[in-house]
Design goal:
heterodimer, A: alpha/beta, Rossmann fold, nine-stranded mixed sheet, two-stranded antiparallel sheet, 11 strands, B: alpha/beta, 9 helices, 34% helix, 15% strand
Chain lengths: 547, 331
Amino acid sequence: MVLYDSATLGGSCSGSSSSSSSSKPPPLQQRQQTQQDIDGLLAGAGYRVRSSELRKVAQRLERLETAMVNSPADLSQLASDTIHYNPSDLASWVDSLLSEFIQPPTCPSEFIMDPETNQTVVSDAWTTAEPHMPQVHQNISYEQQSLNNQLTVDNQLTVVTAMEEDSGIRLVHMLMTCAECVQRGDFSLATSCLEDMQGLLTRVNTVCGIGKVAGHFIDALSRRIFQGIGGGSINGGSAYENEILYHHFYEACPYLKFAHFTANQAILEAFDGHDCVHVVDFNLMHGLQWPALIQALALRPGGPPLLRLTGIGPPSPDGRDSLREIGLRLAELARSVNVRFAFRGVAASRLEDVKPWMLQVNPKESVAVNSIMQLHRLLGSDLNRNSPIETVLSWIRSLNPKIMTVVEQEANHNQPGFLDRFTEALHYYSTMFDSLEACTVQPNKALAEIYIQREIANVVSCEGSARVERHEPLCKWRTRLSGAGFRPLHLGSNAYKQASMLLTLFSAEGYSVEENDGCLTLGWHSRPLIAASAWQAVSDGTVDFPA
Amino acid sequence: RVVPLNTWVLISNFKLAYNLQRRPDGTFNRDLSEFLDRRVPANINPVDGVFSFDHVDGATGLLNRVYQPSSLNEAQWGMVDLEKPLSTTEIVPVIVFFHGGSFTHSSANSAIYDTFCRRLVSLCKAVVVSVNYRRSPEHRYPCAYDDGWAALKWVKSRTWLQSGKDSNVHVYLAGDSSGGNIAHHVAVRAAEADVEVLGNILLHPMFGGQKRTESEKRLDGKYFVTLHDRDWYWRAYLPDGEDRDHPACNPFGPRGRSLEGLKFPKSLVVVAGLDLIQDWQLAYVEGLKKSGQEVKLLFLEKATIGFYFLPNNNHFYCLMEEIKNFVNPNC
């Protein structure tokens, strides 16, 4: 490709007219090499860009546009005050402009984590004016993950991260504003916020990072505003669907595996020395938790006990008895390892519909009650009767279980104020989506995302009995369970060590197990996302049998 | 991306640079604009078979740039004979070209337009005269049309641009974006003054109107251009207080006029399918038809604005072929 040369007569190739003619030109070979990489067509338009740098320049242009869109002050004023570099050197020109826009004097993006309290401290500029903003973990973790996964070349990496930073912060800002409007009941302003956010979403990467999470929250807000708070299709998924999504969530990230493992350890220890044991599982799903326990019991010194498993789950509408099917498979496994095993399925749409007599607990057996993310569903209060949580905790206690294993989302998603709940959820699910980036297996990852998306939709767009995802943090459960007559069982440093080890073997870096006063939490970087604890009924001297 | 990466970089760069130059109060940062615009000098020596030289128009003081195919006789390179016609036997079309830039940006010696005109000469076997009309907001309507008319008269009166057995200057008017708009209005003036123009080539010409059309709403902001910037440029070009139904902007609108009965040149109107103002361009085509004028529409469905700046896509070659056939009807 012959470069059209404007500076010299005779048609020799010396590049753009901006190059100095007084200096000695570089050796011919070197010059030709450099020339060969310059995009010939752009050169004809007066711009020198290396072909190899085209993509980078494109990304920086996108970034510049985003920065210009976000720029609060008068754009043209800023433009006038800027020192412009050689416009022909497009890459440098764009970069020099970027440096003007990315750190403008009124940059609103300062968030600091207080290391002691683990709370976000908002910088002074925002304390009075703006609602409390969650720290967006995206920037740090995305970069780290990218380094681990080697997703992109270094140059592109920082560009994409920073691009997410600007639009991400703007999106978070707008989400908070929208939620605040919803709380105030100003739905027309909320609707226009939604439109703005939809527009901003088109300029943001929605495959990962803040764009993806924001997309789900925008959807959830949209549902709430336009479809009301009854839940609708996203929450009414069939039991079969829910099981599939749950299974993929189980595979895509370690939270459920951690829950099962930790609970099984505790149950195993509690059953030590007992010959007749009965596990009551509040949500059987595909029974993923139990093969490991069955095998552990098979291998215990002194031989396995007689194991009864009662699995609670929703009824199957199509005549299938899915509970029984799972039970049969588990029975098959138990038989293969010589564990005497009996299964019973209890079909109930809601946990509060289960009555203790359905479980047919034998007074001679040791009972373990296992609740993986089920107790929070009982926190919706029905003014007509006793709160479901109290009812259920009361009959659990009446069974006098050897152990009750409780795993719950470590989040405060049951606050009465919508904005507080929204803020907390944004924080929580951003972190969870971050952690999900470590998973690359499909369709596990995509379906796991849908699973999480449904939770988000329930937290944000539902109220009353439709809102079942009423997550509460460990400290609140401690109070509640102690008040209901339970005392905590220490999970033990053994459990902690084993959980940590399993994590390093099977999961990406970034996950962290922490010990919290006898309980274990699993989280992403420093943010715990799921908490496992174990409990025992406080003995009051009497033995209570169900009526 | 619907365009090649280097095209995307080029047009996005323009978009962002232009954003910096327009001020919300309607003024324009001309100094910054001139600084950022990439310019190239003329070159009397042929490069790829085309040479160019500038001529200063005495009335406006503006440079018009002439592009010609280089002589087959190498001995004549570097010289222009202003005594002799282009040819005494063949007809050599002379395309009077008005560059785009929404009446505000670019010049005849902007690199992108210099390159484009050179390609026009090579691929369409024509002489091109690129007009450096005065721009808004410093010079509003009707300055651009006045300058275009002056350039047309100048071209028509050059003996060294004559060709064919009838020793005539065989003129076509062409332009992209605002240049297309100028070509139309100059052609009207020419028709009224009985000055012969053989054809109009309008490359996604800049037209508009008060109402918002479907394409404007659908494509606003999607492919480099926004309604917001379109409005700005009209406000900068049209007389103060005027709206977009002014006939300069909307020639077949409520304040427009029919061209029925006028000896108006045949038109080739090129519309890019991803241009938000295409509905206005299509309405223009309809307006010409209703006036009984000859018009050919070239609708390039997947093209964005500026597709012709770089010869890296099919639309470019299709366009050049159409223009070549348009200005060389007997070939």
